[in-house]
């Protein structure tokens, strides 16, 4: 198959009315590995905002049950992507996600920031490491998709364009990235989980962690007080990803069947299957002090 066959398909779809199909093609056939990596780093960088990282630590989910928490996040988002936001399964996934978020005191600003990382990080990853960058048409569809995700989550004042999302993310990180022991513990647990994912589990853990840190910006490393990798480590790690992109471009054909999150070897908690309405946590009360009486909505 023509290496650009899927890009030709996305070009023929309408970014306004068919953004779900475009994102489904991008995430499950055109760039499944790259987008999974990018979204993992998107979540990781949110820990560097103390109001987010501390909350995740206090729930205990990201430190005591890191694999399950990772799997639940992947599978909830995967259900929405596969079946569509308006489907019965998609609505159930949104309810489950909103019920979890609604149990905690999460500010709208933090919710908007997390949403912005899902918009911006994959676009930047693919521009740097993918076998091709997203086209402007695909970026528009990607942005519209996550605007709709944000709307179903009850997030207010969602940016309207990719550029506005990028500005929001960069500005929020510049203002809010800071060190906290508890957020660092969440980051450490996530890096430890990364060392268990195949094929990384075959390499020394120290090298896997170094590789991951070599892909992070200095200001993100500093927020966790991680040691900055050497210039050589950065060069080798980033060159390896770019080389992979070249290999995919010139030697591999497009994926003919979609690869959803439940198919990934990283997702290991539910070998017998799962019910999306039973994923995640079911806290009875918020384990952290509430800053204000306002809470995000608990349904769509």
Question: What would you say this structure looks like, in words?
Answer:
The protein folds into two domains: 13-177, no CATH class; 201-250, no CATH class. The chain starts with a helix and ends in a 49-residue tail after the last helix. With 300 residues, the protein is mostly helical. The chain has 14 helices and no strands. The longest helix is centred in the middle third of the chain and has 22 residues, at 108-129. Residues 286-300 have low confidence and may be disordered. α1 runs antiparallel to α2 and α3 (32-46) packs antiparallel against α8. Helix content is 63%, strand content 0%.
Major sheet size, sense and barrel closure: none
Helix content: 55-70%
The total count of helices amounts to: 14
Overall residue-averaged pLDDT value: 93
Q: How many domains, in number, for the residues? A: 2
What's a quick, concise take on this entry?
With 300 residues, the chain is mostly helical. It is built from 14 helices and no strands.
List the helices and strands and how they pair.
Elements (H helix, E strand, L loop, with lengths): L4 H8 L6 H12 L1 H15 L3 H10 L1 H4 L1 H18 L4 H15 L5 H22 L6 H17 L9 H15 L4 H14 L10 H10 L3 H7 L6 H21 L49
Helix pairs in contact: 1-2, 2-3, 2-9, 3-8, 4-11, 6-7, 8-9, 8-10, 12-14
């Amino acid at each position: 198959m023509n290496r650009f066959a899927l890009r030709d398909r996305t070009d023929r779809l309408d970014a306004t009315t068919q953004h779900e199909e475009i994102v489904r093609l991008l995430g499950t056939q055109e760039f499944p590995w790259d987008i999974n990596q990018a979204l993992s780093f998107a979540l990781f960088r949110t820990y560097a905002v103390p109001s987010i990282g501390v909350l995740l630590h206090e729930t205990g989910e990201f430190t005591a049950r890191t694999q399950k928490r990772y799997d639940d996040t992947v599978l909830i988002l995967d259900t929405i992507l596969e079946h569509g936001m308006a489907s019965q399964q998609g609505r159930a996934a949104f309810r489950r996600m909103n019920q979890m978020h609604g149990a905690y005191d999460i500010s709208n600003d933090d919710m908007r920031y997390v949403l912005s990382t899902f918009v911006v990080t994959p676009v930047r990853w693919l521009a740097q490491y993918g076998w091709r960058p997203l086209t402007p048409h695909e970026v528009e569809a990607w942005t519209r998709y996550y605007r709709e995700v944000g709307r179903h989550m009850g997030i207010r004042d969602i940016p309207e364009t990719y550029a506005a999302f990028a500005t929001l993310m960069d500005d929020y990180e510049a203002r809010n990235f800071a060190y906290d022991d508890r957020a660092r513990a969440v980051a450490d647990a996530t890096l430890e989980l990364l060392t268990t994912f195949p094929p990384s589990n075959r390499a020394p853990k120290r090298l896997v962690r170094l590789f991951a840190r070599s892909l992070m910006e200095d200001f993100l490393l500093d927020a966790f007080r991680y040691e900055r990798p050497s210039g050589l480590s950065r060069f080798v790690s980033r060159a390896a990803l770019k080389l992979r992109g070249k290999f995919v471009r010139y030697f591999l054909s497009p994926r003919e069947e979609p690869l959803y999150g439940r198919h990934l070897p990283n997702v290991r908690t539910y070998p017998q299957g799962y019910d999306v309405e039973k994923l995640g946590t079911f806290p009875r009360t918020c384990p952290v002090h509430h800053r204000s009486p306002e809470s995000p909505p608990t349904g769509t």
